[in-house]
Every structure is written in structure tokens, then in C-alpha cells.
Design goal:
By secondary structure, the protein is α+β, with helices and mostly antiparallel strands. It has 15 helices and 21 strands. The chain has a seven-stranded antiparallel sheet, with helices on both faces. Strands 11-10-14-13-12 form a five-stranded antiparallel sheet, sandwiched between helices. It has a five-stranded mixed sheet with strand order 16-18-19-21-20, covered by helices on one side. The chain is elongated, with a radius of gyration of 41 Å. It starts with a strand and ends with a strand.
């Protein structure tokens, strides 16, 4: 027979101390020790082996002459909770409870009952037990035993007298057969989720009351928090292991610097690509660990984006610099990813050489065709159809000439054969570009607006920079319906390294660009194909030339657009240092 009472009823008065009882076997321990009494006399020593563990941890006992106060038991429980969080490893939690829970809640047997992954039952893990109490190593269903009922109802259970007779659940039967009579079970929950239960059991004369319940619930809450911490720690550890495996297997070199300038991370690919040992540079200041100036300058500048970086052995790497932040936007550092693109660069150079050669060879014949078409058209009165065909030949030849000129311009800029860069007044250059485009804007009644700083000097080839600006402004005029607007805004800003840059935005109110086309607008010969663009002339090289010019000036360009709502091209150029 099992007698229960509600947790709020007062506990029975403490019976006399039974010095004959002994503590049960504890996991991972050899031997036993005599349990301390429930009370503490003035001569009782509180010495410890270490700050984390008492000299002899065992069940509390009732004493006829003295009783440990609830405040003292709460203090012991607090010490146990502190000890739980000294390590995120679950075995440490269970060992700590097995070793020390008896200091706060009198017991001869202690078990943690945890639900299985399917939440259909629970397993009993004995933490401190007497030899005779060995529950079956099986999954108990949630309708079996006091722990199952505590998990199902979310309520604690206190039992005064557990009897070993027929009809008693398997778990209680084993405990009763071992002479354990008093039982205290408290659920372990994480928010609304039930994790399991803590089970305390003791031999007579110990009986559990509300004070024991309060402390047991405190320990259960602490164990729940510790398990939650362990889960988070394990998740972070798994993510760290996965990240480490990915970084170790990638052929791209990855380096990361924290806000203090220390190298947080360097993967194995750093060694073959940069000749640096990852283990020797991690944790050191960037300026001290890396003496390769181009890479160091990339970190110091701190400008997000993609650029080409020459490697010490002559190869070329694509360098991607990104700022790393937490999900809450807090800065973690700056990462640079290096990918060897030497082969791609060589293939691109071969292609460019071929295109430049063919373009140069075509320029002469195309010029001759244009001239002959003009002569035939101007030779005198002729059949109108002949004149129209001559004009068609002339227009086609001129289009081919524009293509060839554009290709030769790109090849010249990429090869570094263009004129030398010099300080250029960007404000004046924007004004010149607007004046040259204005005649094409007036017939469509397109308004040209401008907002410029007083001065902005950049290092560039003046004629090329003007060509790039004309391309962008003219593009806005071409793709903006009559009565629209094209706005040019330039503004200066300060970089992280103390330098300055100027940002130029060319915004139109035109037809916009579809999302699928945005990543291709700077490709050679790429033109957006739609009904709205079908009748607009162009070679598909203007934006490719513009990007080449901007990058040759040490800048970068990007595009933002929503189809039907206009387009914005943004140029970022470093200002010339005085």
C-alpha cells in the first residue's frame, strides 16, 4: 500500500537519529562513508577537501537534539547549484547531484528520470543508491511509477510509507524491497516542456515534508537550467566542429581579424597560398603576424567587396572582404577569403588578346565599308531603294565600328596601356558629361538634376572618367520615358583608414531592370531583352566599359533597380590624397 499526502501539508516531526544506516553506493566511487546528521552541533567540522566537494557527502539525518535549519539547507543547495555550472558536461551534473544532493535533501537513493527522445517513456538513471535498489534498465511508460505520473501531471509527489506488495509499480516495488519507504518526486521542466523528474527515497525514520519539497524543486530547476546550458554548449560545439571541418577542407584561404586587430582565425589553405603557418599567426596582431603589404593593406582599408590580389609567388587571388557580425548586429571582425584565380585570369587574358587582335584587324575594313556606302549614297540621283540600302549598309558598318572601338577601349584599359592617371576634378567632369547628354534629354523633356560638393579631386584618366559618366547619364536618358527625371548626386565620406572617397549616384525614373538581369548588366554584349527595350539602340558594351574605367581608378560600381521603378548606379571612387 502507498500513502501519499499533498505537498503543502506539514512534514512529520523528525524521529530520533539512526546512526546504524549507511550511505549507498555512488556512481564512479569506491567505498562508502558515514552520513552526516540532519542536525549540526556546535562542534561539527565543516572542512572540505576542495571548494567543490565536502569531505563526506551523504544523506541528512534527523537528530533528537538539533536540526539543520532550512536556511542552512538552502545554503547547501545553493552551493550544489553553483557546482552544477562549473562544467557544461551532463555527466558532471549527475555526478555532482549523486555526491552532494544528500547534503540538502535527506536520502539513501537518488535518481534522475529523463524522458526518451520519442517522449513516450522515461529511463531511470540511479545517481546514489543502496545495493538492493536496482531498477530495471528499460524504458518505463509515462503511466508507470511516480516519476511517470509527475511528468504527466507536472505535479510533485510525496510518499510517507512505500510498501512492497502486489499491485505496486515495478519501480516502487524495487525501492520498497530495498527498505526505502519515504519517496519524494519533483518534475524537471524547461518552460512548458517536460524533461523528466528527480526521485529521492529514504529508509525510516526519514519522512519528507514541505521543506524537502522546496529544496528538491530548487535542485530540479537548477538541473533543468544546467541541461539547457549543456544543450546550447553542445550546439555551439557542433557548429564549431562543422565550421572547422569546412574551413580545413576548402581550398580558399580564410583569415579573420577581430576589432582589436588580432587574427582570430586562419585555415590550413593560408599555408600554400601565402606561405604562412596558421598556428603561428592566430592570436597575434595582424600588423605583426603578416608582413605581406598588399594583404595587410586590404585589412587596414576595410572596404567590403571583391578585388584581385597578387600573391607572393606571382599568382592572382580573388579577395573577398566581408564584415562579420552577430545576429544582433554586434561587430565580430573582418574576414578575407582568398581564391586562386590564376588559371581563370590566364584564360581571360588569352580571350582578350584574341578579341583585341580581331577588333584591330576589323577596324580598317569596316572604315572602308562606311566610306564606300557614303560615296554610293552621295554619287548622285538614284533609285530610292538603292539609297535606302546604302544607308542601311552605312548604319550597320557604323554599329560594327562602335563595337570594335568599345572592345579596343576595354582592352587598352585592362592592359594598362591607357594614359597615365592624374588628379581630376570630378565636379567639373560631371558638369561636362551633363552638358554633352543634355541635347539628347531635351527632345524627351527629361529633367537633369544635380547635387554636387564644392570639390572632389580623384586620381583618374580624365577623358575616360568623363566617358564613364556620359555612359551612365545617357543610359538613364535612353531608358527613361518622356517627362521623366535623371538625378546625379555626389557626396564625400571618410574611410576607416582615414582616407576619403566620393560616392556618385545616377538615378533615373525609367523602366528599371528585372531582378534576373541585375547580375549581368556589366557583362560585355549583355542587353536586357524586353518589349520596353526592343527599340532602344546600343552595343551592350557601355556599362562594361564604365565598370572597367571605374575599377582602373581604384573604385567600384554597383546597380540597384526595381522593374518599373527606375534604376540607380552607384560609383565609389577614392579621393586623391594631397
Amino acid at each position: 500500500m502507498v500513502r501519499r499526502h499533498e505537498p503543502q501539508l506539514p512534514a512529520a516531526p523528525p524521529p530520533p537519529r539512526d546512526d546504524g544506516a549507511r550511505a549507498g553506493h555512488l556512481p564512479h566511487r569506491q567505498g562508502r562513508c558515514d552520513p552526516p546528521s540532519h542536525g549540526r552541533g556546535p562542534d561539527r567540522s565543516r572542512s572540505r577537501r576542495s571548494p567543490a566537494r565536502r569531505a563526506c557527502a551523504g544523506p541528512l539525518r534527523a537528530d533528537a537534539g538539533a536540526r539543520v535549519s532550512q536556511a542552512e539547507r538552502l545554503t547547501r543547495a545553493s552551493e550544489i547549484l553553483i557546482e552544477l555550472f562549473r562544467s557544461p558536461v551532463p555527466t558532471h551534473f549527475f555526478q555532482t547531484l549523486g555526491d552532494r544532493a544528500g547534503e540538502a535533501v535527506p536520502s539513501h537513493y537518488l535518481a534522475v528520470c529523463l524522458q526518451d527522445p520519442e517522449k513516450s517513456g522515461y529511463l531511470v538513471h540511479s545517481l546514489a543508491s543502496v545495493d538492493e535498489a536496482s531498477p530495471a534498465q528499460r524504458v518505463f511508460s509515462l503511466d508507470e511509477g511516480l516519476p511517470g505520473r509527475a511528468m504527466s501531471t507536472g505535479k510533485p509527489y510525496l510518499v510517507d510509507e512505500l510498501m512492497a506488495e502486489d499491485g505496486v509499480d515495478d519501480l516502487e516495488g524495487v525501492l520498497a524491497a530495498a527498505g526505502l519507504r519515504a519517496v519524494l518526486v519533483v518534475p524537471i521542466r524547461r518552460g512548458l516542456e517536460m524533461l523528466g523528474a528527480l526521485l529521492f527515497a529514504a529508509r525510516p525514520p526519514i519522512r519528507y515534508g514541505d521543506d524537502d519539497l522546496q529544496i528538491a524543486q530548487l535542485l530540479a530547476s537548477g538541473l533543468s537550467a544546467a541541461l539547457e546550458t549543456s544543450l546550447a554548449y553542445q550546439g555551439a560545439s557542433d557548429e564549431r566542429s562543422t565550421l572547422g571541418a569546412v574551413l580545413a577542407s576548402t581550398a580558399d584561404a580564410v583569415l579573420m581579424q577581430n576589432p582589436a586587430g588580432l587574427i582570430l582565425l586562419a585555415n590550413a589553405a593560408v599555408r600554400p597560398m601565402l606561405g604562412l603557418a596558421p598556428e603561428s599567426i592566430t592570436g597575434r596582431p595582424l600588423l605583426e603576424a603578416i608582413d605581406y603589404a598588399p594583404l595587410r593593406d586590404l585589412f587596414v582599408a576595410g572596404r567590403e567587396g571583391i578585388s584581385d590580389l597578387p600573391l607572393p609567388d606571382g599568382r592572382i587571388a580573388q579577395a573577398s572582404l566581408v564584415r562579420v557580425t552577430t545576429p544582433f548586429g554586434e561587430p565580430v571582425g573582418v574576414a578575407v577569403i582568398l581564391r586562386d584565380i590564376t588559371l581563370l585570369k590566364n584564360m581571360e587574358q588569352m580571350k582578350n588578346d584574341f578579341v583585341n587582335t580581331v577588333s584591330h584587324d576589323l577596324k580598317g575594313p569596316i572604315t572602308v565599308i562606311c566610306g564606300l556606302a557614303d560615296l554610293m549614297r552621295m554619287a548622285g540621283p538614284g533609285h530610292p531603294a538603292l539609297v535606302e540600302r546604302c544607308q542601311g549598309i552605312r548604319d550597320t558598318a557604323q554599329h560594327m565600328a562602335d563595337l570594335v572601338t568599345g572592345l579596343l577601349d576595354i582592352g587598352k584599359i585592362e592592359a594598362g596601356l591607357d594614359s597615365a592617371r592624374e588628379p581630376v576634378d570630378l565636379v567639373a567632369t560631371i558638369g561636362e558629361a551633363l552638358r554633352m547628354v543634355k541635347p539628347r534629354a531635351e527632345p524627351k523633356n527629361i529633367e537633369l538634376l544635380v547635387e554636387l560638393p564644392d570639390e572632389a579631386i580623384v586620381s583618374a584618366v580624365g577623358i575616360r572618367l568623363r566617358q564613364a559618366l556620359i555612359n551612365l547619364i545617357d543610359n538613364g536618358v535612353k531608358y527613361t520615358p518622356a517627362g521623366g527625371r535623371v538625378t546625379v548626386v555626389a557626396a564625400r565620406s571618410v574611410l576607416a583608414d582615414g582616407g576619403e572617397m566620393v560616392t556618385v549616384r545616377v538615378t533615373d525614373t525609367g523602366i528599371g531592370i528585372a531582378a534576373k538581369d541585375l547580375s549581368h548588366v556589366f557583362d560585355k554584349f549583355y542587353r536586357v531583352k524586353s518589349r520596353a527595350t526592343r527599340d532602344i539602340a546600343g552595343t551592350g558594351l557601355g556599362l562594361a566599359i564604365t565598370r572597367t574605367i571605374v575599377e582602373a581608378c581604384g573604385g567600384r560600381i554597383r546597380v540597384d533597380s526595381v522593374e518599373g521603378s527606375g534604376t540607380t548606379f552607384t560609383l565609389e571612387l577614392p579621393l586623391a590624397r594631397s
